[in-house]
Design brief:
about 40% helix; six-stranded mixed beta sheet; 15 helices; globular; Alpha-Beta Plaits; about 525 residues; alpha+beta
Length: about 525
């Protein structure tokens, strides 16, 4: 009789994202990865146990007896306390006879008991200090060290994250080496700021669809380990392909004359900073920070590559969703991450509602926060901000958009390829008429009836074309609509993609900046 031990790191999100200092976020992510991918296997092997798999903040170890299992848990807790203060682990153990039939029942019991252990555990004791004790600038906990470089007090958790942020940078350069003339940045300011112009950051949260159910289908320990291995490898290939895509298009991205932007220069090396910074990258869970102007195109590329790299995940294809928060550079980062995560979650819920649990679709959604507002996704979508003034049933958006897989025949405008490569592209091509399209944004807020009148006037005055393709010489304004769905009032099915496109026409790079694009395979948004 042997034992199965299930581990779960608790409070991962606030540990990683609870700071506005990018290097702390990177160090927190690295420590989380080290805890289950490095330290737990080393401890298990030293004690004669067998490490099985890790992923999503969970890990499993098999031991010869209960005492050995408890010793490993104790040693891991001690290691976290000393090396990663503020990061905690919950675990539980179950006896197992080694058979596949017994494994499924024991695994279910492990998760039930782990849930009970987490719900019943005492919160960690934290000494808040006294009135004369300095507070950590990042966490508010009692200070432990003075940071001379940044001239501020740091608590134990913040200090550990900051210290390991340097190792995180070395690790990333090792597994995803940049060209010699580029460097990874550890500052948000160097990701989303152009001097005197743009200062917007894109936070992308990417997560696989129904991965928990997929892991539940694994009937044996070897099958579970194999699935975990495949997911981790697929995640690495997906991220690598997306970063390679950015690198391949960098000449166009930083071509200011073509509508691109200049890359920030690193203060120490004096080299340009790569405009993307992976923060969490493990399996089907990826979080990136990047310049907002490439965020949506990069998210679409991640979804395409994930599907391409998981066509046969234990015999079945896999899909994912992405949420993108577009915020000011100094917006609270944890809030931005929570918004991106919520957008991803709501997109999954939408797909389940519309297509069922087994929908073979990957989709994305986004929100743009112009100021310092801290409203939630639900508050924004259910409030008047996204409802027409004349009819509250008319939505001023058509999100989410389908990146892989086709939308229903009644909503072809939700296809990301059409939306990005036709509609947004059309608006961006007509640079001299952007003022008129921004005027249309105000008209759309009045609802379908007023919009139809306005579009009819445009047709009569400016020769408005609604065709899929634009004849620049023969036509006046161009506002395309899908081939099989006339949108004379701009509100098919009581929703409009036009306001989404107008919102993005000045916040996304024009397609000409992506040098790898072609008619056969657009750079962004085409379903594989």
């Amino acid at each position: 009789m042997s034992y199965l031990s299930l581990y779960d790191l608790t409070g991962i999100q606030p540990y990683i994202f609870g700071s506005n200092i990018l290097q702390e976020n990177l160090g927190g992510s690295y420590l989380v990865k080290q805890a289950l991918d490095e330290w737990l296997p080393i401890i298990s092997n030293k004690m004669g146990a067998e490490f099985q798999w890790s992923g999503g903040g969970n890990a499993m170890v098999t031991t010869a007896d209960l005492d050995q299992a408890k010793q490993i848990a104790t040693e891991l807790s001690r290691c976290l306390h000393q090396t990663a203060p503020g990061l905690y682990v919950a675990c539980t153990h179950e006896s197992w006879d080694g058979s596949d039939d017994d494994f499924k029942a024991r695994r279910e019991a492990l998760y039930r008991q782990l849930h009970a252990n987490k719900a019943g555990r005492w919160p960690p004791a934290v000494f808040d200090g006294a009135g004369f004790t300095a507070a950590c600038a990042s966490t508010g906990e009692s200070a432990a060290k003075w940071d001379k470089k940044n001239e501020k007090w740091l608590g134990p958790a913040a200090k550990a994250r900051l210290d390991y942020g340097k190792k995180a940078a070395e690790y990333l350069q090792k597994i995803y080496p940049l060209p010699d003339d580029l460097v990874w940045t550890n500052q948000f300011d160097q990701l989303g700021r152009s001097h005197g112009e743009q200062s917007t950051l894109g936070v992308i949260h990417f997560d696989g669809n129904s991965m928990g159910q997929r892991f539940e289908k694994a009937h044996s320990l070897p099958e579970l380990c194999e699935l975990s291995k495949q997911v981790n490898e697929a995640g690495k290939r997906t991220l690598r392909a997306a970063l390679d895509w950015v690198t391949a298009n960098l000449d166009g991205i930083r071509n200011v004359d073509q509508g691109g932007f200049s890359l920030s220069i690193d203060d120490q090396s004096r080299k340009p900073c790569f405009p993307v910074r992976p923060i969490v990258y493990g399996g089907d869970d990826i979080t990136l920070a990047c310049d907002a102007r490439i965020a949506l195109d990069l998210a679409a590329k991640l979804l395409q590559e994930w599907h391409r790299n998981t066509c046969n995940l234990l015999g079945e294809p896999a899909h994912a969703c992405a949420g993108i928060a577009l915020v000011r550079v100094h917006y609270p980062f944890y809030r931005a991450y929570q918004l991106a995560e919520d957008l991803c979650k709501k997109t999954k819920q939408y797909l389940r509602k519309e297509h069922g649990e087994s929908a073979e679709i990957s989709a994305l959604d986004w929100e743009f926060i112009a100021g310092a507002g801290l409203t939630t996704h639900d508050q924004r979508r259910k409030g008047d901000l996204y409802r027409a003034a004349s009819d509250k049933q008319e939505q001023l958006h058509a999100r989410p958009y389908y990146v892989v897989g086709d939308p229903p025949a009644t909503t072809p405008y939700r296809d990301w390829s059409w939306f990005r490569n036709k509609l947004v592209h059309a608006l961006q091509q007509q640079e001299e008429t952007h003022t008129r399209f921004k005027e249309l944004a105000g008209v759309l807020h009045q609802g379908a009836r007023v919009t139809k009148i306005h579009l009819d006037r445009w047709r009569d005055r400016f020769g408005l074309s609604r065709a899929e393709e634009w004849d620049r010489k023969a036509d006046g304004l161009w506002l395309p609509e899908p081939k099989n769905l006339p949108m004379s009032d701009g509100f098919p099915n009581n929703e409009t993609p036009y306001l989404d496109a107008i919102e993005l026409m000045d916040r996304m790079l024009p397609l000409r900046c992506y040098s790898t694009s072609s008619e056969a395979e657009p750079a962004v948004g085409e379903s594989p």
